[in-house]
Amino acid sequence: MKAGGASLRAVWGLFVLFAILPPGVTESLGDLQSRFDRETNGVRKAKLLEKLGNAQLEETRRAGKAGDYTAVGLTLEKYRDNVRAALEALKRQHPDAEKQSNGYRQLEMHVRKGIREVDDVLLVSPEGYQPPLQLVRHDLVGMDEEMLKMLFPRRPGDQHAAAPPAEKQP
């Protein structure tokens, strides 16, 4: 009976291991990029960017550890371009993000993650590599702000921008 229990635990352990592996581990960066490029549905494209973006950010970390800041810059520029493509696809198919937020939410959260990664790279990258990385960061922040405005068009902090009320005449 113990031998059967041990093999059952081993099978269960393998199941748990595969269940907790991050998605996309078995797919290469090139395969994910090809799937992303072929995808025409904006929501699926945004959700696929989660897998592709994670793979790109992991590639950025590997290249950074190896000191290959040219590859870091190119990978982050491709990430930015992919974010832009996903956002444009969402805007074409679902222009009202407040009512149809699926895809926008996932994309916005991943872009925040990407901005943090760019910030980390900027801290350690040599000075000559920083200007293009700063441009990537600027573009990502701009797209993030655009998505937040689309998702939450009536934010309480924006009320002060309205015209002041007219004074009553006696």
What is the CA-based Rg, rounded? 22 Å
Largest sheet: none
Number of helices: 6
Percent helix range: over 70%
Label the CATH architecture of one domain.
Up-down Bundle
> How many distinct beta strands?
0
- The termini sit apart by 95 Å
Oligomeric organization of the protein chains = single chain
Work out the strand percent.
Answer: under 5%
Q: What is the helix/strand order?
A: HHHHHH
Shape, principal axes of CA atoms: globular
* Unreliable spans: 10-25
Q: Kindly provide the name of the CATH class of one domain.
A: Mainly Alpha
The average pLDDT score comes to: 85
CATH topology-level name of one domain: Ferritin
Structural class by helix and strand composition: mainly alpha
List the SSEs and their pairings.
Blueprint lengths: L1 H19 L8 H10 L3 H24 L3 H25 L10 H21 L5 H22 L19
Helix pairs in contact: 2-3, 3-4, 3-5, 4-5, 4-6, 5-6
Structural features:
single chain, 170 residues, Ferritin
Provide an overview of this structure.
- The chain has helices spanning about 1-20, 30-40, 40-65, 70-95, 105-125, 130-150.
- It has about 170 residues and is mainly alpha-helical.
- The chain has a domain at about 40-150: Ferritin, CATH 1.20.1260.
- Helix 3 packs antiparallel against helix 4.
Short description:
The chain is mostly helical and 170 residues long. The protein has helices at residues 2-20, 29-38, 42-65, 69-93, 104-124, 130-151.
